[in-house]
TrEMBL record:
Keywords: Methyltransferase, Transferase. The keyword Cell membrane does not apply. Pfam families: Methyltransf_25 (PF13649). The lineage of its organism: Bacteria, Pseudomonadati, Thermodesulfobacteriota, Desulfobulbia, Desulfobulbales. One of its GO terms (biological process) is methylation. Residues 47-141 form the Methyltransferase domain. The keyword Methyltransferase applies. One of its GO terms (molecular function) is methyltransferase activity. This is Class I SAM-dependent methyltransferase.
């Protein structure tokens, strides 16, 4: 995990500026994750954002759900420091924890979500994390993961990678930001979507489903208990 921490500590200052180019489907990707949260805008509930980084996803949650308490967990203190700047004035609703979620989770949450982070774990660590997430949720609680996935075959993986590079360049990403992203991606441990959905089922989740995919980018979830409780219809 040291390589991941170092990569994000070093990239924290410039991380935000190329997000919309590096995630060509930005609005649908984050928007789907947000739409899956099974609560009314005025509801009070607890959210844990795994690998929250500079708070991109948490900020969307905080804006849509004005009463939530959000815990931002990240291994990089530098990324969390940028998140603190983003949330200046809202601190009473937020908790910032510097730590490695592969080492276990503390506390109970109604919604656990993550964006572009869990692909840094090995498969064994992902399987363990999914179990720990299930344990940290109440009945009806939901886990939502918006992440990069590995192509299920080498030729499909090549299409994912080439499509991503072309789309990012078409959107005008600078070579500096693209190279920084490619450098960070050296530490990626992506897994195919089908494996991850199976690991969620094995961890005890129901209604395990991928709700959105655009080549490399997928949004999938599982609920604890009966499943599809209060999901948007
Ligand atoms: C690509 S950034 C995504 C940040 C944010 N979720 C977003 O959507 O912009 C990945 C983040 O995950 C964090 N991260 C990676 N592995 C982690 C781990 N095992 N424990 C905690 N944070 C981790 C990194 O430090 C980094 O801030």
């Amino acid at each position: 995990m040291t390589a991941v921490k170092t990569a994000f500590d070093e990239g924290a200052q410039t991380y935000d500026r190329a997000r919309r180019q590096l995630i060509p489907c930005f609005d649908d990707f984050y928007g789907t994750a947000l739409a899956l949260i099974p609560h009314q805008p005025q509801a009070t509930f607890r959210v844990l954002d795994l690998g929250a980084g500079t708070g991109m996803l948490s900020s969307l949650v905080a804006k849509k759900f004005a009463q939530t308490r959000i815990t931002l967990l990240d291994i990089s203190q530098e990324m969390l420091d940028k998140a603190k700047e983003r949330f200046a004035g809202m601190e009473e609703r937020l908790e910032f924890i510097a730590g490695d979620y592969a080492n276990g989770l503390e506390g109970q949450f109604d919604v656990i979500l993550s964006a572009l982070s869990i692909h840094h774990l090995t498969d064994t660590q992902k399987i363990k994390l999914f179990k720990n997430i299930h344990n940290a949720l109440p009945e009806g609680g939901i886990f939502i993961n918006a992440d990069q996935i590995l192509g299920p075959t080498p030729d499909i993986e090549q299409v994912y990678q080439e499509t991503w590079l072309r789309q990012a360049r078409d959107l005008g990403v600078s070579e500096v930001d693209l190279n920084a992203a490619l450098e960070r991606m050296q530490a990626d441990r992506m897994a195919p979507l089908s494996s991850q959905l199976e690991w969620l089922r094995q961890a005890g989740f129901s209604s395990v489903h991928c709700w959105y995919q655009q080549f490399r980018f997928a949004v999938f979830s599982g609920q604890k208990g009966k499943g599809c409780t209060n999901l948007p219809t």
